[in-house]
Amino acid sequence: MRLGDDTWTAGIIGLGYVGLPLAITATNAGLNVVGYDVSAERVAMLVGGQSHVEDVDDASLRAALDGGAEFTADAARLSDADAVFICVPSPLGRNRQPDMSYIEAAASTIENIARPGQLIALESTTYPGTTDDLLVPAVVRAGLTLDRNVFVAFSPERVSPGDPMKTADIPKVVGGVTPASTEVAVAAYRRLVPEVHAVSSAKAAEMAKLLENTYRAVNIGLINEMSQLAHELDIDIWEVIDAAATKPFGFQPFYPGPGVGGHCIPLDPQFLAWRAREANFATRFIDTAEQVNSKMPSYTAERVADALNRAGKAVYGSRILGIGVAYKPNVGDDRESASLQVLDLLAKRGAEVAVHDPLVDPGRIEYPVVGALDDIRGYDIVVVLTDHDGIDYARLAADAAVIFDTRNALARRGIRDGRVEVL
Predict the structure, then answer these.
(1) Of 331, 332, 307, 330, residue with least CA distance to 320
(2) pLDDT band of 86, cuts 50, 70, 90
(3) Is there a contact between 249 and 319 (Cβ–Cβ < 8 Å)?
(4) Which one of 86, 142, 304, 356 is least enclosed by Cβ atoms within 10 Å?
(5) All residues at 6 or more sequence positions from 235 whose CB lies less than 8 Å from its CB, including other chains
(6) Which of 136, 144, 264, 265 is catalytic?
(7) Strand order, beta sheet including 403-405
(8) pLDDT (tens digit per residue) in 278-291
(9) Strand bridging mode 381-384 / 403-405
C-alpha cells in the first residue's frame, strides 16, 4: 500500500456533515477525491458549488472542486479509490435500538466496488464489533483476502458542528481489524491529520468514540440533576459551577440546560447500552443519565409554567416566545433539539408559541417565526432555550415582561434583572 505518499485517491461514502468536511480535508491534503452520495439532488448541489453543511462554506467547496474533487451518485466510481471512508448516518430506531441500515447499505456498496489494494475505513458511530461484523464479511464476499489485498479499519468521526476546529485539526483514533490493517490505516490518516492515535483493534476504536460521548452524557445528567436539587434548596447552580471551576484540578465544568440534543449525546450512549444488554451487562450510569436528561424538557416546561404562575398567568392562552431552537449555540442544526421539545410541551398545554432563531431555517420550524426582536412586549414570557451569540439579549432584558433563561445567557453577558429567572 502506498498511502503514505501523495498520489492516492480517497473515496468517501456519504457527503453529509462528516463526509463533506473529510472530502475538503483530503483535497486540501493534495489527494484525489471521489465523493459518493445516494442523493442525486445533494450531489447536484455540490457539483454546482453549493454546500449544505454549515462547516463547509461555498468558497471552500468551490476550491475543492477546482482542485479536482469529484462528487457523484454513481457508486462504481469508488472503485478508483485507494482508500474508501464510510461516513453514513447511524441513528437509533423507534425503540432506541441501533438502526444499522445505512452502514449495511454501505457494506453492500463496498461488496460491489472493492478491489485489491484498497483500505476500507468506517467512520460512522456504532457499537463495538460493527466493523468486524459487517465490513469484513463484505470484502470477503467481494473475493478479497484480509491483510493480503484488502485492509479494514475503524476511525470515529470527531466533528463538532459550529466549532472553529476543523477536521484536519482534530486527532484521529484508528484501529484496524488486524495489526496490518491498523498500520495501513494509520498511514492513510496521517495524510489527512497531524496526529493519529493507534489502538489495538477496531472494537477499541469503536468503544473509544462511545466513551467520549457517554462521558459527556453522564456528566450532563449529573449537572442537570444537581440543578434541580439546587433549585429546591434555593441555591444558584450557575454560581456554584463557577465557584467549583476555580479548582485547577479534579473538576471540569458542565452546565445544565433544557435537555440534550444533536446527533451524538442523545444517541451514542444508547449504542453502548444496547451492546451491553446483548452481553447481559447493566449500564447503570448510562441509564440513569438517560432518565435525567430525557426528563429535562418536561422539567423545564414546568419551570416555565411556574414562572408564568408567579406573574399571574396560566400556560393556557399565554403567548410564549422561544429564543433559539437549535440543539447547540451558533449552529442552524435542530436535530434532536431539546429546545423544540420544551416548546412542544408548552404548546400541548395551550400556549401560543412563537420562535426567534436567526440560524435555523424557518421552513423547519412549525411555529410562527419572529424575524426580529423589535416588539416583544406582547409576549407573556420569553424563554431562552439556545444561547446563540447573535441574539440581542439587551433588547430582551429591556422589553420582555418575564424571562426564563435555561442557559444563564443574560447573566453571562453581564445582564442582570429581577425579571430573569434561570434554570
Answers:
(1) 307
(2) very high
(3) no
(4) 142
(5) none
(6) 264
(7) 352-356, 319-323, 381-384, 403-405, 420-422
(8) 889 989 999 999 99
(9) parallel
264 is catalytic: yes
Whether 332 and 376 have beta carbons less than 8 Å apart is answered as no
Residues 6+ apart with CB under 8 A from 365: 325, 334, 355, 357
Three cell numbers written together for 252 = 471540569
The answer to whether residues 26 and 10 touch, using CB atoms and an 8 Å cutoff, is yes
Say if residue 92 is exposed, middle or buried (CB neighbours under 10 Å; 0-12, 13-18, 19+): middle
Helix axes 338-348, 284-310, angle to 10 degrees: 50
- In terms of Cβ atoms closer than 10 Å to its own Cβ (0-12, 13-18, 19+), residue 290 is buried
Amino acid, single-letter form, for residue 91: P
What pLDDT is recorded for position 1? 53
pLDDT (tens digit per residue) in 200-216: 999 999 999 999 999 99
